[in-house]
Predict the 3D structure of the following.
Amino acid sequence: MNDTARVSARGASRWARGHPWIYRSDILELPACRAGAVRVLDERGGLVGTALWSPASTISLRMLTHDDVDLGPAFWHERLEAALAYRRRLGLGEATGPSAYRLVHAEADGLPSLVVDRYGEVLVAQFLSAGLERYREEIVQALDALLRPAGVLARDDVPVREHEGLPRRVELLRGFVPEEVEVREGAVRYLAAPWSGQKTGAFLDQRENRERAGELSFGHALDCFSYHGSFALQLAVRAESVVAVDSSAEALARAEANARLNGFAHVRVREGNVFDFLRDEEAAGARYDMIVLDPPAFAKRRSAVERALRGYKEINLRALRLLAPGGTLCTFSCSYHVGRDLFSRMLQSAAADAGRTVRWIEARGQAADHPEIVQIPETGYLKGAILQAV
């Protein structure tokens, strides 16, 4: 069976410049083998490298190396060991640091389509391509050898797997993983839900932004799109009162449980549509000293960008009108298709329409354990800003 792919000059050039994806449209000769590892050649027969091959996917090849290598246990152990070493240099995994963090950020760690998050003594993984799925057991064995986790859970219940011709499922791969795991994050604790929570159980990419918001928090604070209250908890350390708003009653019940876990009696939850809530608060003349806007992705496709920008502008405009003089707005977008420039221009427009003079304090991004690779813009999706109403 032929385990070689031949790609166009455009596909080979993309990898030569540092981006690991080669699309179906750039494959001149398809491998005849099942999903897994293949050798990749250019138009003239020169070696491009070794890739993960996904027969059903638009992203057909995910390049791993520029060499012809065997993807045996040693390969996965070496790549995972390098990812772990980077996190250790960040101080993660230490007794005094956060107990939940990202161990593998897919392409950014040279492990395309693999995500691994650590929650204390357990790991939650996502195998997001058919090529990678072929090496599930080798990867889990390497994680076992490196970390000796109490359990490994596969959260393979994401839509992208359907585009790979893979089933959506949640599966225990090793040991025991509880329904809830208590996470330590700076001065607060919260309960993550590995089996049922968003992503792998919590939004770990916002960890550093939550702690920064907590450092700046004061007075009366508002956390919009609160989910399980992770921002609200950090705000509550210094704020006199915190209101956490979300449309999900189930999410807010967990937010209340997290507030009780920390002994925060001054955190109140409000169920409702954030757009409506902000509009009603403005009409009522409410004022807040600190506001966090952490909405879900408004633009999951490029075609949705224009509509998304209108949504982002509305919530930011109304939040700016609710800020007391000297108040702080921490605002974010996790829509990859809304880039930093678009996000910044949206904030300029919102401030102008709100009639507020706004001081730019700092730009924010995703936590350092979610690294961005310059040549792979898809590895960076979260952007944010901290602003102050003058």
